Amino acid sequence: MALHTTPLLPAGQQNIHALWLRLAHWINALAILIMVTSGWQIYNASPLFDFEFSKTITLGGWLGGAIQWHFAGMWLFGINGLFYLLMNVATGRLQKKFFPVTPRALWDDLLAAVKGKLAHNDLRHYNTVQRVAYLFVMADGVLLVVSGLVVWKSVQFPLLRTLMGGFDAARYVHFFAMSAMVGFVAVHLIMVMLVPRTLLAMLRGR
Length: 206
Ligand code: HEM
Description:
One of its GO terms (cellular component) is plasma membrane. Keywords: Cell membrane, Electron transport, Heme, Iron, Membrane, Metal-binding, Transmembrane, Transmembrane helix, Transport. InterPro entries: Cyt_b561_bac/Ni-Hgenase, Di-haem_cyt_TM, Hydrogenase_cytochrome, Ni-dep_Hydgase_cyt-B. It is found in: Cell membrane. The chain is mainly alpha-helical. The chain has a single domain (about 15-205), classed as Up-down Bundle (Fumarate Reductase Cytochrome B subunit). The protein has 8 helices and no strands. The longest helix has 28 residues, at about 65-90. Bound molecules: protoporphyrin IX containing FE. Protoporphyrin IX containing FE binds near residues 21, 28, 32 and 185.
């Protein structure tokens, strides 16, 4: 059996995800859980639509408690997200891992995925569907923060408020950005269950 080695470590021992990346990922997962469930409780106090979220899946107990959770989680999500994005840019990882993205490669990988033929041999390499999904969720995170700033301090961020189309529109933007995030996480978790080796790598690095 051929053993693929590099001058540094045998294949099984090479790091797939650096420690900083793994820490940022799991802190982010916790922050998202806090933000989404407390956000649903806040939403229930003044629903935008004809439904409310069940109390069993919300955090904070009541509006005041939920706002406390949301504001605490906001710093965790914002600072950790900034750290993740800055590290990705500064180390050149963003460019290396998530680009190039071409419509052709996206189409090919989507077709392969539908046929169950998308390769997962090398976990250090993201296919184009993953690249697009991860870039999308990064952008969605930024949109959540920006629209959240407008909902929180509308008067202090007049430019952002205008960009969002006003205070009321910012609430809808914030809601739909949350929905997109929840949609991503649902698909993300299904994908992780389909390829459990990726979970091991995100936990222990290899
Ligand atoms: C308990 C929940 C979660 C689990 C079990 C999980 C698991 C994983 C795993 C296993 C990977 C590596 C994928 C691969 O190597 O192919 C990954 C990557 C990623 N996950 Fe999650 N995840 C969770 C929550 C989240 C949440 C809430 C977000 C929200 C934004 C997220 C965003 C990402 C991103 C952006 C990447 C790519 C990271 C990079 O390489 O820079 N994950 N996740």
